[in-house]
Amino acid sequence: EGVTSVCFHPDGRLLASGGRDGKIRLWEAATRTEIAHWNPEDAGIVLCVAFSPDGSLLAAGLEDGTIRFWNVGDQREVATLRGHQGRVLTVVFSARGDRLVSGSLDTTVRLWDVDKREAVGALAGHGDHVRGAAFVATSRGLMVVSGGYDGTLRLWCAATGREAGRLTGHLRPVHGVAFSPDGARVASAS
Questions:
Q1: What is the rounded average pLDDT of the residues 172-176?
Q2: Number of other CB atoms surrounding residue 32 within 10 Å
Q3: pLDDT above 70 covers what percent of the chain?
Q4: How far apart are the C-alpha atoms of 143 and 162, rounded to whole Å?
Q5: Which of 43, 148, 149, 164 could be 62's S-S partner, Cβ–Cβ 3.0 to 4.6 Å?
């Protein structure tokens, strides 16, 4: 079946992939050898994967609306996050690794405390599903940008969950977003 998502481990030696077959695979990048795989029971398609900045965790967004965490070192599942009412289409860790943002078919953006494995906020405002998200640290604190199939970008304050701005102009769905390293610019793909 088809691959839906890939990401490199922070040290570049490993690669993770998610697939339509419901499996998450871990690969040795240099040899292109599969070294492990996980198959979350009854979770459906693996739609997105992301490593934590320290490389110890792998997060996966799944068709059943859950986010699963795996310990990369011992290759075991350590948590299941529930809260979305639709497919999880994007998962992204903050630079410090203490927060995770997710976007879903249910039109919400959710913020999660990685250590406590619990939701810290649900951000609602998109008129269609959320496909892209990113964090940036600014002078105003940690911010999140999300891009939706409604063609908008929304900027959120991660501490309060309040919308801090909105960008429009795309005539089609937004599929991806990214901040520049200095946080001064945001790029979006549509």
A1: 80
A2: 8
A3: 99
A4: 10
A5: 43
Question: What number of CA atoms fall less than 13 Å from residue 160's CA on the CB side?
Answer: 8
Phi, psi at 8, each rounded to 5°: -90, 145
pLDDT digits (tens, 9 = 90+) for 46-70: 999 999 999 999 999 999 999 999 9
How many angstroms separate the CA atoms of 26 and 4, rounded?
Answer: 14
* Residue of 3, 188, 87 whose CA lies nearest to 15: 3
55: three-class secondary structure by DSSP: coil
pLDDT of residue 190: 86
The tokens for 138 are: 């600014």
Residue 7 near residue 49, CB atoms below 8 Å:
yes
In whole angstroms, give the CA distance from residue 144 to residue 158. 6
